[in-house]
């Protein structure tokens, strides 16, 4: 472990938190799993430190160990955790209870699993204050209301009496932050606090964390797989792999000059919003799988997957200092030599399996494969009383959309804007209220289930959660064979041959056919879902958030898979995601949706370079970039609050209630979707009115 530097806040060299040689084991029937194996680091008072790494690297186990929230079959097998000079591992139950929530608070990835769904928010917030403070219930409620207001929740005096399910995901995360900061802790541990949140809500949470760190002087230990999030919040970063720290340093140095091949690969696996992906849009990926914690390699744990491996990697390297507050665990770079830039390494590496120049985009004027005209979907709500008004949710409200053969169209927007509903309308999982869905020129909007059955071969859907869409009681082979047999595409031995072909096509071992979905990682399950969609030789694939919550490396592998399949098979994609950097990287054209209406559509490069609609500008500005200099020089436009209710959408332009440049006309008239430049459409009374927003 590197020696702590002088703490600028207190003038003391003693860190707030010190973890020394921490070892956490899980005792299972198959043996001892070494989840954390000799981790050492420190956090100074008021400092913001990030921990990154793939799933299974030991990040969350380390965080839970700090406040002793691990349960059986886990066991802390060695090391020490020192908080303000006290050994946390030696604390009795009463002392550890006062530490949790009082001096150290933790915000978890999914706030809904941390908040009691049957207890109002008021009671949960007040309880946390009463346990750790000498305060009356009335004063505790007043402080809780103030905290909710400080966290940006509108009308906190009314909101505090709501149940957790009455809040959006972003609002629930704000409640958790209010609970965490209620007792003004010295250290806040945030475990993936922005995963799966919209970019606008994510930006609000990150800015809130920075403000609270500045206002309260609270140190933050941020755990995330998103390097852009880490670059936005943290001053120092710790990289974990295989249960140990492999690199540590300032965020500026580490992101610009990584000295461990694992860090290098993570950085280069991230699609960048500020970079043109170019002709070959494949991302750098880490081949293979993380080491088995039951049987760790004897040498460098990353060596089997390392593109820079040397003979000495058969020995296990120690974490060595290579500069002030900079350490790495790598034989290749400990002598001081930097790793090559991605472009230099790519020039020496094997070429892409598919030539990107071979891809054919639809010609100008060619008839689209899919066209949507005036598509509407309203969901009626239950009447309030026998004579009550019939209210409806305006999920999709007059959408026009076209997708050409072989094209990838990205669909972006916040949660609740109608993206997933539109996807289910196109594939006819939902029946439209009005409008047309033209597939190869034929309107399928009102076709019966029997008439749709043969068409489902030609349009398939990949869902956000592959585990929920795969039958857990069927083997992978049976899952892939089922649609082949149902549509009569093959019989007998030919079915098994097709299953093997599909597994190879998506990069899975043919032996996977005999395994069940729970035996695979998230990325592998997404490949199985993709293989099932490909089993019937479709022309159009609708991918609904297929990479949400995946690790950076798995996300890059899935993106590369889609790119390769499109180039090989000429597939057409409607790609839905809330990660705009990914959408830019994979899409030819992008459609921006808000409250069931199209706000803007344009070629991907054009939209990100010259957005016309204020909503598009706000979305783009909210996306974090894994580059400290770029983050500091960007102008951020934060949208206040959540989108309005789809039951009672605003009059005129639906974005006007959150728009920085809205005028009276925006409330009176709904702007039409008009072409302002070749191929660039926007529904705005003042297109380009945000000016030089960068």
Features:
694 residues; eight-stranded mixed sheet; 24 helices
Could you characterize the architecture of this molecule?
- With 694 residues, this protein is of the alpha/beta class.
- The protein has a domain at 111-184.
- Helices cover 31% and strands 21% of the residues.
- The protein contains 24 helices and 24 strands.
- The strands form four sheets. The chain has an eight-stranded mixed β-sheet, with helices on both faces. It has an eight-stranded mixed β-sheet with strand order 18-19-20-15-21-22-24-23, sandwiched between helices. A four-stranded antiparallel β-sheet has the order 2-1-4-5.
- The chain is globular.
- It starts with 16 loop residues before the first strand and ends in a 12-residue tail after the last strand.
- The model is unreliable at 1-11 (pLDDT under 50).
